[in-house]
User: Fold these one by one.
Assistant:
Number 1:
Amino acid sequence: MLRLRFQKELIEAGCDEAGRGCLAGPVFAAAVILPDKFYHRLLNDSKQVPEENRYKLRKVIEKKAIAFAVGVVDNDEIDSINILNASFKAMHLALEKLQHEPQLLLIDGNRFNRYREMPHECIIEGDAKYSAIAAASILAKTYRDDFMRQLHQEFPHYCWYTNKGYATKEHCRAIEQFGLCKYHRKSFDIKAAQLELELF
């Protein structure tokens, strides 16, 4: 059962990212402020929600949220500042775009680069514990999936329409056959990912 609030005094925004472990494409992050008494029976960590339901939830979240926004950091910047900092930056970009300013940030995970002087709480597996983080995970995941489907049109042989840039067997085999393209993260150890898949 997801909890709606970490505390009751301050306005909370949940933050989460999608695409951190991918071999290609940007990392997306979302920030969401939910109203009091928000509830949806399908809402959960995006990894636990079927794709069809994620898109249903996105419509509900965008309609009912007090504020929401999405931030993006591309693969070139990921290579420049590393994926951890890129994930934090994507969250910062989402927070900057919020139309309503929160007073407390609920961050999925165990680390975060402080945003302005705003207090934050890092919550391990927070997307399975708090509604606002779960909602952010749904938005980040669906917006990133949509983006990877667009990139698939340009490079269909990597099968990003289905694997979204993750290190699946089909993706790794395509890299072996066609090499890397401009959307791959060159700082990632892609050869190690290929070898790991070959061992299974």
Number 2:
Amino acid sequence: MRPKLPHERTRREPTLRDPALLPRSLSEALEPTRAPKAPRRIRSRSEPGRFSGFFGFVNGLLSFLFLVAALVGTLALVLQSSFDQLGPLGHTTVAVIPKGEGVYEIASRLEREGIVSDRRMFMAHYLAERMYTNYTDGKPIQLKAGEFEIRKQASLRQVLDTLSEGRAILYRITIPEGLTSAQIVDRLKAETNLEGEITQIPEEGSLLPDTFKFSRGMARQELIDRMRTEQQRLLATLWEKRQKELPFETPQQAVTLASIVEKETGRADERTRVAGVFINRLRTRMRLQSDPTIVYGIIGGQGSLGRPITRSDIDTKTAYNTYQVDGLPPGPICNPGRSAIEATLDPAKTSDLYFVADGTGGHTFSASLKDHNSAVQTWRKLERDTKAKQAEQQAALPVPSAMQSADGGADAAKRAAIDVPLPVRKPKR
């Protein structure tokens, strides 16, 4: 490429001799050439500003929280899955949790008995449920003592619900109507699923006979207290609904008469009528002349007399012998049931003053002494015929059977101690 000729240059090019490029002085010529100033930079939007540290902290915190939430969610899914899985128990069993055991001891017991596969998983679910219920209801769950039925292959949820909700196996004890307080205490002492002592025999008539449910290990005194509370509640309710102008003034007197009604008949359809007889006698100032009061006056609350009532028993004056004392005895002779108390406070309105056994388990009621004497003669004839028939059957049986009949005769004698008819006496005015 050829160099351009002078006349071909279109613009002036600086040369070494150009005055603009020459130094102005000797010192300037000796001074090094200074580098030009850097151009002003425009800050990039992507560069961190003064809030970059705070935003970084927030970003890291959110990431950490997200990771924690993911771990918690995963753990919750695992726990939820294990919570509802079938358990290792191969058959239905009974778990007995003693009083005073802690969560760890209970979990170890359940694992040892094959009810749960891992005690740690059980404790983890218990703690999780405890925290949840405490947060939602304010009442954290508690594992209860008792005897619990655990179904075959019960899950951790089912086991925990059973122990925390207290769905213990319930036993039953039936206290028949007409027992004395001493007899009730003896029955409770004989029940092996109850615990504890009864320090004092309750007052006669203060307990309500019934069928009671309880869990293993319940205190005997607690059951006594429940029977007393139930009797007080029932009596208060029935007393408010009683008939007007009854010949007694207090609920305690009503219980006393109800105890006599209870011992005089075991038939529910007769109780109001038997109560009506005694109500009529109290109104006319006749003595009650009730045989069970003779028995209680002799032996107290110990039970049956063990033999028929004799004439000397009738003539023996005690505080409870209503053949010898006027009006009601000083207190109940047993613990009457609900029906007897109801009948006493709402008796049948009749003119009956007498009743005697009719041989069928019931009684013949009479309003006059003449009719009563006739009913007594009928009963005595029936009694003689029955004894003669029993004697014939006993004579025809072998010796072992005869011995059994003798035992049966003893039982009949015990029943006769209660079913002896009211004596034929003129009403005492």
Number 3:
Amino acid sequence: MFLYGVVNASPDSLNIDSIVEGPQQALARATQLLADGADGIDLGGQGSTDVATVVPWQAEWERLREVVPALAALGVPTSVDTWRPEVARLALEHGATVINAADGMQTDEMWQVAADFDVPIIVPFLSGPNPRAMEMVQRDPVETIIEFFDARLRDADRFGLRHRCVLDPGTGFAPSNWPWDERYVYQKRVYSNLDAMRVFGLPLYIALPWKETVQHDELLEIVIRNRPEYGRVHYPAKVRSFERRIRAEG
């Protein structure tokens, strides 16, 4: 699995180990992530959780302005995690090589940026704060995710970009107000059925579980056994250790 190690230039990340301020801290974290087994870097400047303070796009870019070229100089794939086309465009101009579209690529403006730079696009499923939130679990979350991807890929076709898309089932965006036991059931259902999402013939990208609990470790192992092409990771050494153990088991 190709792993993107997480570097957050936003102070709102739920994982405090990922938070950096400025290019020197970002380089130190990125260097450690790569040494621990990451293959690329995923960089964000605006938190996307409910607890994050939303800042103007100019403030988001100011957090990234010096960090993007510093990380790009490492010579590894670097994705920019944003829902703002202005930020995505500037990051790509300054050395980022992948769009990690926190908006689920739901605007033509983001598709146009991707088309202008002809870069890979990580397309996450987004549940969002909508009336269908509970329905996603009560009927079939996998079916709902596939429907979402089908719609986004029809958008991609208008820009000739289907072949550039990488699909993320977006479990990190499941309704955040659910208690953990419901989120656990949701995530286990999705992770256990990743093969269903290969109907589009496109690679898969998973935001890998990182918390230190038995259930999170169970979810991580399910993901690894289903062999997605890409993962977003806070602790790559742990993921590589899981991979080695699973390979050894045959």
Number 4:
Amino acid sequence: MRPPRPDPVIEIHGLSCTYPQRGTVLRDLDLSIRPGEFVLLTGPSGVGKSTLLRCINGLFQHGDQGEATGEVRVCGKDPATTRVCDLACEVGTVFQDPDHQLFSSDVESEIAFGLEQLGMDPAQMRSRIEEAAAAVGIMHLLKREVNALSWGERQRVAIASVVAMHPRILLLDEPTSGIDQSGARHLVSVLKRLNQESGLTIVVAEHRYDHFSRVCSRLISIQDGAISYDGPPTRPGLEAEVRDQSAGTGVEIPDCLPILSFEEIVYTYPGAARPALNGATLSVHTGEVVVLAGPNGSGKSTLLRHANGLLAPDQGTVKIRGEAIAGKSVAEIASTVGFLAQHADTQLFAETIGDEIAFAPENLGFPHEKIEATATRVMGALGLDRLGRLASPLNLSVGEKQRVAIAGILAMETPVLVLDEPTLGLDPARKAGLAEGLRRCAKEGKAVLITTHDHEFAALLGGRQVMMQDGRVVPSSGGVQG
């Protein structure tokens, strides 16, 4: 006789979620998850994956950005009537952007914070901190300042701070975005071990499903606000699409003056013990796509922030068309270099999508007719036209915010495009479309410099790959490598 199946830890009936401007993103959704399941949640950007996670941890019900109807039970509790802090003892959440949940000055204090709120004995707290840090491979970071870490390192700190609480359920919203391939594999193995050894129930919303499809016990796909598939994990066939679109830009790179060059760049963040850049040298020509890869903390984002003057080198020279940019303002450089930061939230500030996209072109002196035509073109290319120009960027999903930020950069029509991890929150179809658009920019004579940990996206881009290690650029011998 089989033992009775345990009661679900997550039970949802008839859940619908509506935002004032985006409309309904989840429609009459039913879902039941039992203890110990490892669930991979997939679907296009903006389809409601993050909203579903926020309904499980109660953040949606206790916020003011939308309305939820239907019934949700988590560990027997109703998130709508349970304080978020009380539910957090049962449900741990790792957000897409680690900066949304990190606030302590150093790593050890960050991991300790939740345990302190539980009134845990100091000796047990020390054991939990070391256990969580070892689990996600950040023992070497415990004494570091949080602000001195790379984005991928901060992501792992956020995961450790949640794992240390020993929740019954762990929710992760795109946890591998911003983490290199080695780090992603390590994270997946850690989650697999936590699931198998401690029975932790795990729900992961992720576009980079290739890592998780091999370890999860269940795959749920959401399309048009409803569950379109719920069953054994499958690996969607992206390889053929990658092969079809992974050719290079098709542009001969002339042996001439580069449009953007970094010459022996050395830079140390204030208070840091060692330089983030230690003699980094790289040249980018018109008509070329350059993919900058390397582990977290190797200096990729720091180098890119030198391209438009956001950072000034301690030593070395940054040049545009052979002329040093030292002494020029970011605004002056913006007419040549369009820069996308890792997180759209750091660049979005206008009240509407239309105003956001028009802001930079207006400041560059574009005529009104050109701004209108350009906005229409980039919104269509990035699938933003369905949202409309009057929608608020700050009320969108992470993937939609990312596309708005990209649209704002493309609308500037600069000869150099510098993008730092541009695929955050983008589903495979959007990634393929973005890669195609950037290859087209190169064919039109623009220079494209990108950092990404997403090997599938890098393969779609083609072009030239260079590696960074310990603050230096190490050219590879060929094209994009998997």
